[in-house]
Amino acid sequence: MTPRDASDDSRWSNLDRPPLNGAALRRGLVRDGGLYCDVEVVQRTGSTNNDLAGLAVKGDAEEGAVLVAEEQTAGRGRLDRQWTAPARSGLFFSVLLKPAGVPVARWGWLPLLTGVAVATGLSRAAGVDTALKWPNDLLVTVGGEERKAGGILAERAGEDGVVIGVGINVTLREDELPVPTAGSLALAGAVSTDRDPLLRGVLRSLEEWYGRWQRAGGDPAVSGLQETYAAGCATLGRVVRAELPGDRSITGEAVAVDGDGRLVIATKEGVQEPVGAGDIVHLRPA
């Protein structure tokens, strides 16, 4: 994969944020018959999604390749928003998936599936309550306030691949937050902020959910994904504003996530409108 940045001589400069060990992660996650074929840790890169997608397009990465960066200098979220954080303060990684046997029309469930996997893995490994904001944000509670601690970005990689990028704030302190609405696992009172078991927990949860979804042919109901996502989605039951492409917006109650992974909004006019893409603003608690 991408070569390590050997010029970085500050790997141990912050002992509160020790580096990840790629060899140990490979030993723990790569196994015969499992999803993961490789886990590579790099010290610094622009975007793990860009790097892994580039390798996939060239045929230099297989399904189950995982690329982890200790620091991203050009990390992106949805709508090309920037995602920046201090080195080793979080988990920043991408996974290449090739969901053969699943109709392309159902691939839109992959970011929601990843959200369920991340929330489940962190609940087990960090002991912190998390919630999902449709379609791809991970929320935690800090001082009674709902804050974003992570995000997911899914991008096509060639004809048969999807790269799933995940960013999670782990040890970010208040004075390091990029915006006041951001949070981290540490600020939310996580019982563990050791990134090694956190990453293993998230990746094992992703492997479990991805396998279940694939075996069901991508059917979100049969695999249990639709029900589980809805149960952990903080957006449902709230009054929201959906800011849509073309400077259009919809305001109403988020009432369901449909079989295509779209958020269904009931407007005051009595119309239920499915939203497949857009920015969702929570206007009022459920």
UniProtKB/TrEMBL annotation:
Keywords: Biotin, Ligase. GO terms for molecular function: biotin--[biotin carboxyl-carrier protein] ligase activity. The keyword Transmembrane helix does not apply. The keyword Ligase applies. Residues 28-214 form the BPL/LPL catalytic domain. PROSITE patterns: BPL_LPL_CATALYTIC. CDD domains: BPL (cd16442). InterPro entries: aa-tRNA-synth_II/BPL/LPL, Biotin_CoA_COase_ligase, BPL_C, BPL_LPL_catalytic. Its EC number is 6.3.4.15. PANTHER family: BIOTIN PROTEIN LIGASE, BIOTIN--PROTEIN LIGASE. This is biotin--[biotin carboxyl-carrier protein] ligase.
